Amino acid sequence: MSTSKVTKQILLISLLLLSCQKQSPTVFALAVEKGKINKKYINEASGIDASEVNAGALWTHNDSGGDADAYLLDSLGKYVAKISFDNLKNRDWEEIAVAKHADTSYLYIGEIGDNRSIYSTKYIYKCKEPKLSKDETKRITEFDTIAFALEDGPRDTEAFFVDEKTQDIYIFSKREPEISVYILPYPQATKGILTAKKIATQPITQIVAADYNAQTNELLLKNYETVYYWKKLNEESWQSMFARLPVKQPYIPEPQGEAICFAHSGNGYYTLSEEAKGEKPTLLFYKRN
């Protein structure tokens, strides 16, 4: 999408938001285009999250069939470095998350996609988050594999987050008219196949990305058309929070937008699209109002 097209879309949506802001207040402002991804092989970005140990950087990875790699980008979408996982394949990587535990930062990558709902077992790979130098390629030889099945059977999932406060993992189904929310409680065993228990539903669909900000107790989910937002109360359970409807936030529809994350500072959120319709992936930023 050209810069002029993006600018026109932003102006149009700005006018629409201003016309209805009394009915639908938003926490975040409209998108600013930060930059285009400058590596041709990062063309199916399906997850994104802010790095904890690489200041100002973002992690992303490709969708199904890509290399078993995760890429570090700067805040303008420019390539910095990458990691490669030994003895792994990227069947359908759909999500990435960063979460701290006991002063150590961990990277989680979700082998959780299942377009045809045919795989009974899903996987989340977990490793210590590495600090990388410019143009470095680091091989990851030590990582945990969390294997699990959804308690109500195979279905497509493309979004999860880690609750940094409890280390529980929450997974979201994608295609149902009313999506389901599942939990893998901490500690997650790395032997055998765990069962992800269903804890809630939401009357939204086609969820492709999630991110949780533990410092502000905020959650973002997105589909191809909308960003959804919750502010979780300090003592509120996730079940209680998901009994409430979310507040919609600004979103510029992307060619195939499947990634969202808060900035490390919490001052806004990023979205990133796969390459589609001949349009290069562009990193967008929505600043907190």
Task: Describe this entry's structure for a reader.
The strands form four sheets. An eight-stranded mixed beta sheet has the order 6-7-8-10-14-13-12-11, with no helix packed on it. It has a five-stranded mixed beta sheet with strand order 2-3-4-5-9, with no helix packed on it. A four-stranded antiparallel beta sheet has the order 1-21-20-19. Mean pLDDT is 93; it is low at 13-23. It has 289 residues and is mostly beta strands. The chain is globular. Strand 16 and strand 17 (227-231) form a beta hairpin. The protein is built from two helices and 21 strands. The protein has one domain: Tachylectin-2, Chain A, CATH 2.115.10.
The ordered H/E elements are: HEEEEEEEEEEEEEEEEEHEEEE
Spatial order of the strands forming the largest sheet? 6-7-8-10-14-13-12-11
Write down the overall mean pLDDT.
Answer: 93
Q: What is the CATH level 1 assignment?
A: Mainly Beta
Q: Helix coverage percent of residues? A: under 10%
Main β sheet profile:
8 strands, mixed
Structural class comes to: mainly beta
Low-confidence residue ranges: 13-23
Assess the beta-strand content as a share of residues. 35-45%
CATH architecture verdict = 5 Propeller
Topology:
Elements: H1 3-20, E1 28-36, E2 45-50, E3 58-62, E4 69-73, E5 79-85, E6 93-101, E7 104-111, E8 122-128, E9 137-140, E10 144-150, E11 157-162, E12 169-173, E13 179-184, E14 194-202, E15 209-213, E16 218-222, E17 227-231, H2 238-241, E18 247-249, E19 257-262, E20 268-273, E21 282-288
Parallel strand pairs: 5-9, 10-14
Antiparallel strand pairs: 1-21, 2-3, 3-4, 4-5, 6-7, 7-8, 8-10, 11-12, 12-13, 13-14, 15-16, 16-17, 17-18, 19-20, 20-21
